[in-house]
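Q: Hi! First time doing this. I have a protein sequence and I read that you can turn it into a structure. Is that right? Here it is:
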Amino acid sequence: MPSAAASLVAVCVLSGWIWLASPPGESIALAQGWSRPSPVGKHTPAQGDVESATRRSDPRVADTSEEARRGAIQSIPFEKIDPEARRKLAGVLSSTTLFRRMPVHVAPCDPDLYSFLVRHPDVLVGIWEELGVSEFRMAQTGPGVFRLADGTTATATTEFVYRDHETHIAYCEGEYRGPLLRTPIRGRSILILKTGHVQEADGNCYITSRLDTFVHVEDATVDFLTRTFQPLVGKVADHNFLQTTAFVGSLSRTTQTNHQGVQRLAARLHRVDPKVRREFAALAGEIGQKATRQASHEMPLGTPVAIRDERDEETVTR
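A: Yes, that's right. Below is the predicted 3D structure, encoded as structure tokens:
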């Protein structure tokens, strides 16, 4: 039963924000190699709400305090959310099984790519499927609404109830069907993603992200077990959030160095809406061209440059 509780909590959280779903194996090692932590005191969150949390506590450590919980609730712009969505949020906030503020993470990433993947998590899940590193399947079923499945044991639906350039709030409902369970276990969750970015003098951008999670588990027994195993469940979620953020950083770097390959990959994401695939491919091209222009400006005089024309190929010196 503890494993079922952990699985349900994971699915509820995963349904709301796919950053918590960690792509295993070689992709993780690649992502870790390409990402690097920010120097202490140099890359701070760009948004005021995140900066306030940084001053109160160590942002590199998860926070389950009442202060953090109140701050997360106060960050929700209820007046900008429609009544039906507010009702759903209130249902979770009034009977929360678990609350956790994930550690703040900083990753090198193009801000436009990061924003795109936040709004289209099915693209990220589709990439993992194409690479063969994840069993998750996700498809968009409506504007801002996504359906997630993990084999035959867990399913979840998530919808964005609020989005702007620095805040994304998702409401999700999940269900877990284990082989030893007579009835499915159901849960609901709210995820609040706060983001900001900084750009260094060399043009490199770093994304700062923080995720607040509220989870409600319906079954009373599982609710008790989930609370009991909260430290373990929380550490798994923290780890997955870190690993997925690192993977996004690696995808950004790949796009900068091989945007044609990413564009070919976009065409193979068959679960993703064709219009979204085209947007992803176009964005990859823009990022690749931007990286090429930046590299050409940084290239010192006298660097050999290969030039191909219709007659032959030769190397010239700038």
